[in-house]
Each structure stands twice: as structure tokens, then as C-alpha cells.
Amino acid sequence: MGSYRYWFDDDVWEWSPEVAAMHGYQHGDVIPTTGLLRSHKHPEDRATFDALVDTMRSTRTHFSSRHRIVDTAGRVHSVAVLGRTFTYDGQVAGSEGYYLDLGVIVGDSVRTRVSSHVESFQRQRSSIEQAKGMLMLVYNIDEDQAFDLLRWRSQQENRKLRELCHDLVASAPVRVHLPESVRRDFDVVVLSPFDE
Fold first, then answer.
1. Which residues form a coiled coil (predicted)?
2. What is the DSSP string of 93-107?
């Protein structure tokens, strides 16, 4: 399993060392481009890939697919790509997610393993979303600013973003005590009717 990120406007791809390896490269050997990715698609899957990229860029939707990759040694990998859009400066800027190499999933429990990977992805996203929400509330900032702050802290600590967010979410309730007046103010927000 490896991660990717694609920026719509600049047509720029980023991929993890695991996704580079699925294509037969060491991380950093090549710069992933749409053309390079297309060249690694199984010939029978290229038209579908082309249509998917066109649709993704024109409608600014996520990249999710199940297709085959031909690596630099000629080996074929069946992969599933799970994606979601991400925002930058308040605009949908691209698609990010995970590649699952289905060829490494052995035995009769393929569905169970894929489900496990999907659940893992959702759990990882959950702690990131929770950490963003905490920062948004405490610092009165928007979602993009919260994510930029988390990413900066991740780089400063030289830790994976999901690990940093997990620890932040776990430690905040223990280390931060809100005054009763803040809780009462929040009660009013929670219990107030919301306009549609």
C-alpha cells in the first residue's frame, strides 16, 4: 500500500516510495507525470485511465480506480486506488489517497484484506480530521489553515502526519482543561436549533 497526491491545475503527481516501487522505481528516480503513469498502464486499461484523468480534471473529482500497472521489469500489478479530493486556499485542488497492490493479497480473503485497508485509511483520516477540527475551534482558523499547521508540525517533528494527529487527539483531553464557562457556552451552541 502506498499514497499519492495529484494537483489538478498544475497536472503534478506526488507518490510515496511504495507507489514508486509498484511502478519499478526507487523513490526519487523519476518525477511522476500523467504521461509516465499512462505509460505504465496495461494497454487494455489506458483508454479508461485517459478518460478518468480527463473527467477528474474537468469536474475536479477524486481519482479512484481499479486497473493494472506494468512495472519497469514488465510485471503486471493489479491495483485498486482509493481517493478523495483535498482543498487548498478554500478550493478543491486535487485528489489524494492510496494505491493497494492487489497482487500481494494472497488466499481467499481478498475482500477481507481490502476492507481492512479501507478501514485503516478511514481511521487514519479520522484522527487527521479530528485534529483539524480541534485547531479550527481553538484558534478560530479555517480547515486549510488547520491542515497547514498540522503539516508544519509534522515536518518540524519529523513524524508522519497521521501519527502526530493521533497523538494530538489522544493527549489534548488529558493536557487541556476547558473552564466550565466555555463548556456552558458550547452547550448553548450544541443545543440551539440550526437554521436550514
1. none
2. EEEEEEEEEGGG--S
Cell 479550527 found at: 136
11-64 pLDDT per residue, tens:
889 999 999 999 999 988 999 999 999 999 999 999 988 988 888 888 888 777
Q: Domain check: are 96 and 149 in the same one?
A: no
60 phi/psi in degrees, rounded to 5: 55, 50
115 and 75 in one domain? no
Same domain, 61 and 145: no
CA dihedral 171, 174, 176, 178 (to 10 degrees): 130
Quick one: which of 97, 154, 90 has its CA closest to 124? Answer: 97
Distance of CA 122 to the CA centre of its chain: 10
pTM for the whole structure: 0.53
Residue 66 shares a structural domain with residue 160: no
